[in-house]
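[scheduler] slot 2 assigned
[scheduler] job type: sequence-to-structure, two independent chains
[scheduler] chain ordering preserved from manifest
[runner] begin chain α
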Amino acid sequence: MIGQGQQGKKIAQQAALTGIIAAIATKMVFGEVDNVNYYNFQMSAHWAAGLGCAVGSVVSDLSSEMVIKRFAINNQIINSSTLAVSTGVCGAASAAVLYFGGLPAQSVPKAFALGAASKLGGDYSNDKLFSPINGIVGPIW
């Protein structure tokens, strides 16, 4: 069982990695979209998607910890539910941020997939980098 401080650190690391992956992927996938506009506030599309996915990662991880893991059900069902919620929230966050910033509606499924994949990549990267047992920098972190 992870302590409260360690859990918060893990959620923050996953959010940062998810945001970085989303920003890079958005630049690669939607390279032609330079800026998004939010109420006359111009922002780079890849930074907007990165921030949206980072916030989505925090929301999905907290909802998994506070809601899903509190049910008295099988761990396999909990893990599947957590995966579905995490990828769905990050995908929705990415799609919403880019769509409401001016991305065409036909690109929304691609933006959703980008956000969901970024969450998976962020969680995987966090496990491989910061795991206390076999992570690259985990034992010294």
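[runner] end chain α
[runner] begin chain β
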Amino acid sequence: MKICNRIYGLLLIVVILSGCAALGTKTILKSSNLNAYQFTRIGYTQIADEELLNEIRPNTSNIYDSTIKNFFNKNNIIAIGLFLPNFFSIEGIDKTEIVRMCQEQKLDGIICTQVKYKFFNNYYGCIPLGKSEDAYVEMQLYDKNGLLLLHTKHNTYAGNSYMMPPKAEKTIRDGTEGTLKQIMKEIEQTQQQKLNKYQPPINKASFGRGTKQCSEAVLGRLSGKKLLITNY
């Protein structure tokens, strides 16, 4: 009985954590032509308004940089760090700079990222637990022609669970990974849909050895006699 209760408890935790991730992650925009792209070499810019973020929480840009490199390395994609001039917001990005950097670095696309910190005081009843430093991360993926393909976001306040109020060193990493995972999820789904579209249909009238039931569709008549299908 105790073992069953532990199993149910673990399953409940998994469901809760999965639900949190879904609540904290969102795709804002997705190109209908995404399945036409293959990404093996991607560039990524510095975080928007990087200097200000590093003043709020030092080392923000370094944690972001290492996280994005490790993520793409695990997915066998080459990631190139880039500097985008006058980058203060993901709204109104200079597309000519995107095209220029893709041409110079021979990139399949570029990711532009914006991060916002939100601090919350946490309590257990009336007992203060400390301040959580959550990260709200947004990313936009452009192709080499400057066309926006994906816009995703992830916030650690709704998308991650912590035993104690998290610090920025943790949430900037989790927020970056959560947003990147959503990008990869969207790309993989569109590629799978493309494969399914061109996959030949399964012949349901074909049966291998050991099949116990055969469709009546495979029964015919030859010289006035029914064909007999025998299983081996």
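[runner] end chain β
[qc] chain β: Confidence is low (pLDDT under 50) at residues 2-20, 204-232.
[scheduler] slot 2 released
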